[in-house]
Amino acid sequence: MKSDAVYVFDADGVLIEPWGFAQALEHDYGIAPQTTRPFFQGPFLDCLIGQADLTRVIGPYLDEWGWPHSVEELITLWLTSENQPQAEVLSHVASIRHKGGFCALASNQEQRRARFIEQEMFHGLFDRFYFSCDLGVAKPQREYFQTIAEDLDVAPERIHFWDDTQQHVDGARQCGWNAYFYSGPDSLSVSNEH
């Protein structure tokens, strides 16, 4: 490990501006969040832990939503509309790494978007990527945080973690991580102290 501390960042809501996909669906296609919620709070959860393929499980829902195009076109819209990196946060990450710090991204994601984030959005910008679809477990489950700490081979108290979901912050703290609720770039100030 390059430094005494390890810095771990959530993706959506921290590194990436959230809700772009939901806004695009509603604005451009009249598909409201309450229409898609049963899917994203149901079958999609299996996609997040690598137990289901998004392209196979989402199909039956598209007619209900009134989506006029193919599954692939929906996924393309999702990836492009959620591709809005937070410049200030990335600047913090770059500063930490420039000083020799170790930075990782840890996010609940399904396979397609995980690969897009890793290879297209943030390639070379992080030392390591941890996605729920690869780990087989999702935040805020204890095993998620334990698996990452074991892979990093560091004591939990050396890990600093930012997430915009309080349950995830609480889950990380229960595993001994220094976890912070992300409410904007100012909440990253602790990373400047190391």
Give the count of helical stretches: 11
The proportion of strand residues reads: 5-15%
The strand count comes to: 5
Largest sheet: 5 strands, parallel
Topology order in helix (H) and strand (E) letters: EHHHHHHHEHEHHEHE
Averaged pLDDT: 95
Outline, from the CA principal axes? globular
Integer-rounded radius of gyration: 17 Å
Structural class: alpha/beta
Percent in helix: 40-55%
Poorly predicted residue ranges: none
Strand order of the largest sheet: 3-2-1-4-5
State the distance separating the first and last CA atoms: 15 Å
Explain this structure.
- The chain is α/β, with parallel strands linked by helices and 194 residues long.
- Helix content is 47%, strand content 12%.
- It is built from eleven helices and five strands; from the N terminus they run E-H-H-H-H-H-H-H-E-H-E-H-H-E-H-E.
- It has a five-stranded parallel sheet, sandwiched between helices.
- Helix 8 (111-121) links the parallel strand 2 (102-107) and strand 3 (128-131).
- It is globular.
- The two termini are 15 Å apart.
Give a short summary of the structure.
Helix content is 47%, strand content 12%. By secondary structure, it is an alpha/beta fold.
Outline the secondary-structure elements.
Blueprint: E1 6-9, H1 20-29, H2 33-40, H3 44-48, H4 54-57, H5 59-65, H6 71-81, H7 87-98, E2 102-107, H8 111-121, E3 128-131, H9 132-135, H10 142-152, E4 159-163, H11 166-174, E5 178-181
